[in-house]
Design brief:
By secondary structure, the chain is of the alpha/beta class. The chain folds into four domains: about 120-215, Distorted Sandwich (Calcium-transporting ATPase, cytoplasmic transduction domain A), CATH 2.70.150.10; about 220-270 and about 620-795, no CATH class; about 290-320 and about 465-600, HAD superfamily/HAD-like (Rossmann fold); about 320-455, Calcium-transporting ATPase, cytoplasmic domain N (3-Layer(aba) Sandwich). The chain has 28 helices and 21 strands. The strands form three sheets. Strands 8-21-20-19-9-16-18-17 form an eight-stranded mixed sheet, sandwiched between helices. Strands 1, 2, 3, 4, 5, 6 and 7 form a seven-stranded antiparallel sheet that branches. The longest helix has about 40 residues, at about 595-635. Keywords: Membrane, Translocase, Transmembrane, Transmembrane helix. Its main location: membrane. It is found in: Cell membrane. GO terms for molecular function: ATP binding; ATP hydrolysis activity.
Length: about 800
Amino acid sequence: MDAGAELDPVHPVSPPAPRFRPAGLTTAEVAERVARGAVNDVPVRSSRSAADIVRANVFTRFNAIIGVLWVVMLIVAPVQDSLFGYVILANTGIGIVQELRAKKTLDSLAVIGEAKPSVRRDGRTAEVSTSEIVLDDVIELGPGDKVVVDGVVGEADGLEIDESLLTGEADPVLKRPGDPVMSGSFVVAGGGAFTATKVGREAYAAQLAEEATRFTLVHSELRSGISTILKYVTWMMIPTSVGLIVSQLVVKDTNLKDSIARTVGGIVPMIPEGLVLLTSVAFAIGVIRLGRKQCLVQELPAIEGLARVDVVCLDKTGTLTEGGMDVTELRPLGGADPGYVRKVLGALGESDPRPNASLQAIIDAYPDSADWRCTESLPFSSARKYSGACFSEGDGESSTWLLGAPDVLLPPGDPALDEINTLNEQGLRVLLLARAARELDDDRVATGVRPTALVVLEQRLRPDAADTLRYFEEQDVRAKVISGDNAVSVGAVAGKLGLPGAENTVDARRMPAERDGMARVLDQNAVFGRVTPQQKRDMVGALQSRGHTVAMTGDGVNDVLALKDADIGVSMGSGSEATRAVAQIVLLNNSFSTLPSVVAEGRRVIGNITRVATLFLTKTVYSVLLAILVVCSQVEYPFLPRHLTLLSTLTIGVPAFFLALAPNKERARPHFVKRVMRYAIPGGIVAATATFTAYLVARHHYTGPEALQAETSAATLTLFLTSMWVLAIIARPYTWWRVALVGTMGGAFLLVLVVPWLQEFFQLKLVGTTMPWAAVGIAAAAAALIEVTFRWVDHRFPA
């Protein structure tokens, strides 16, 4: 090979295949490999480490700025002016505690939901943790299993593996002994076993798998929006702070310590430090709440994503219906002997070591006949919609049988289809048993089959499915049932559950293949049957092309591609290993009714953070503008740090915490930065202008050595009342507790104004009556202007 030639990353040149040992390794051999480190030790974890959480909460850009300012204030000013530092300590502590609680919840749920591969050791098969697999282990595979390490196939029984997540190639690959298998692929049909040839970080896609399943805070519009805002805030702070420092320390010939205190008082409120903390806390509490409902959030942005979902695609089997089925009737066709048919069905059940739900129902109803022997089998595949087997019957005869979808195995117009359609209209699932005239490995084995019997199965509807579908309808989330089953049967099940549009079921085999046409059909209809795995993926893409945010639920291997491509993938805990691996959310209790709780939690987090962000950023805007006005006017900065700590606590910090955790059913909308800043900018401008106006009026009104304190008190009153009106707007629509919250904050400020020792502590004392009432009047005018401005913004710049 040319030294300069590139290797194919997905199908690299492999060393000679190891000798396959059907019994697997011995205990001693496993221990020897563990001792030398030949173990699958990729540190896949569901959450950040405790050290990472502490580091992320403590070592932030704004904590560093505030930390330096806090140290300065501890040196030059009374403890009252250092309160902002203690608030940051408390906030950081709360953030760390909540994220550690979320980590504990995630880790415990991850252990419950962890897939355990079947490994052969000492001649026996046992389930072990993925991290316990060692080099040369023999690992068994079945439908839905994910290949967790690289290896070479040793046994194969119709083993078909989907490598699309690695290669992008949608068609499953038939694997035979000696063929390589790659970590990150999954089994779609058949079974087998392989020998592990690469484990740990050497396995292909191991790093990809580690990153995909690790707790992450990326791909979040909310977090990226906040980062964007903070970036611009930082750039605004730098020149403003420099100007303020020069103004207070150089231009004004005042007491040095007092100048430093007022300079710090101008810089600190520019920092919306609590916004980042509140976002982390809201996400963490969301994870904890969902964890209590046995819902594993594998990626935190999934909470945000579900809040934005406007279309949810549901697989029928295992989602709307329970996993199990019951055989309710057997209808022989063409005079077939019922006893012989039962023998065939019993033998078919025995031919598949990992039966799906339909075949399991047949196995339960028809025991195997001991004198029939399976000579070849064709496992069920969602793509072809049937399975099959060749048998050597006890009398020496041989026969080939297929079991699958009648409308796939029978030609259009076959008389049996009318009878089948009647059963499907009742919501029953019907399988056709047919005798094949061709060999099982013939690509056209399903052509020219002889119908022998209909197997009628009853599906068990989930008792909570109707209520869940009703919830989505009420919340303006459109539900689409996308199933591989017969379209009429799927429509009947959806109709029983009250899904709007269930009467107009679409057979996906007649859908347009091109994206625009498919999207048009999807917008107009709600129930789709006979959908192939690739079509499910295409349908998700078609919906996304129309601007929809799509959630996909499923539990079978046929759902993997669609789950991967959907904005949010939701898997059932009892689903295949492959679906659990690619989904962002796993419902460990297998309850479809948990989904409304997840959607509601997402809406609560995103809607409330959008609300309270306006409070934080209004403060940033008025703080920057006040500093600019002070610099331009060459006057003392009106506030000490203690005043703004008090204002921030009462008008932002405490209310924001309660508002962020309140119920909120509004669907999250895009453009977070635009939605927040359209209120924060005008609100901040009005608040700063009103406050500075009151301050200038007070400077002309008061004289003498105590004038500055009186001026500060008047300005503080104006800013508090103006900020309270912003809070009152953000708190709408009012409930008893929201009114009580706003009232309590106002009462707390009033307490500071009337209690002597609090007046002294915060240096707030209203002098006379003229100026305090003037401050109230200015604040009332500012509140009216904010009200009018916010309504104009709503009309002029709708979100």
